[in-house]
Amino acid sequence: MAVVIPAHNECVRLVEAVKSIVDFNQAKAKFYIVDDASSDGTKEAIESYLKENNIPHQVSRNEAGKGAGFCRNIAFANVTEEYVLFLDADDFLYPGMLDKAVERANESGAQVVLTEYERVHDANDKKLGMNPLDEGILSRLTSAFGQSAFAMKDAAYALEIANYPWNKLQRTDYCKEIGLRFSSTPVHNDVFAHWLILMNATRVAVLNASFCGHRVSLYSNQITNIADERRMAMLDVFAELDDYFVRHPELKEHFYHIYTSFKIRLFHWGMSKIDNAHQEMFKDGFCRTLESMTSRDFFDLSKKVPNIALDVLRYRMRQM
């Protein structure tokens, strides 16, 4: 079992994240941790804890900040264990949940196990539940497939589940086979990886239990809260996925309509985050990402999701 964690100035919570796995699971994990130019002694703190407790690990440090996606990529390149979990330094696993996820993967033969999670308020540890959309998707999957594994092409709607890196456990050989990588962007580095993992999967299972606690803060320096020009990098991620669909028409046939719906929804979320100084540039850039859509793409979209096709047309005509 491999656990990959990027970290920047998380000397306390990184240790807590690792302890949540080591102290409450039978599964033996090796930790691949990349300190992204921290100034608070993050690397020293986690190395001290791991060495004192004889926990297998590989810890490295970037002298200049490279971003979470870059860190995940260089760590994952060295992973050889059967399963891999991508965790954030400010999150944690609930007791015994890693064991349950591995058991679920073993019994189902799944390449990917999707999990429930809890959002936890950073200030008072209040549990906020899952995002309502994710809750609905996981409930729908359970109703449709029960405990059986399924191919993602038979449940394309599940691709709209939040693109967190930590709400899924995956087999390492599968991730290597599909060429998994995270984007080297300052925001949304996990979107491309999320879609690669799920679109290509032919055996997916669901774990109906809260696997991970995700700390939420409205005022911290979490990537979610970035509102300046770095939010524009969302457009670079769209470009990566647009290009991937061009190179993989067999996936485009099944998933492009879901992707377009997701793309518009994520853009709307981005508009609510980005500062006023960059909104028009952001909107114009998004409209330009839709110009690569072919007539065949638009025709297929209008048959499957006519309301989304209408939105695309309005954006391309700059009427929204």
UniProtKB/TrEMBL annotation:
Protein keywords: Transferase
UniProt feature coiled coil, ranges: none
InterPro entries linked to this entry: Glyco_trans_2-like, Glycosyltransf_2, Nucleotide-diphossugar_trans
SUPFAM superfamilies: Nucleotide-diphospho-sugar transferases
Glycosyltransferase 2-like domain: residues covered: 3-125
GO MF terms held by the record: transferase activity
A Pfam family that the UniProt record links to this protein: Glycos_transf_2
Protein name: Glycosyl transferase family 2
Natural source organism: Alcanivorax dieselolei (strain DSM 16502 / CGMCC 1.3690 / MCCC 1A00001 / B-5)
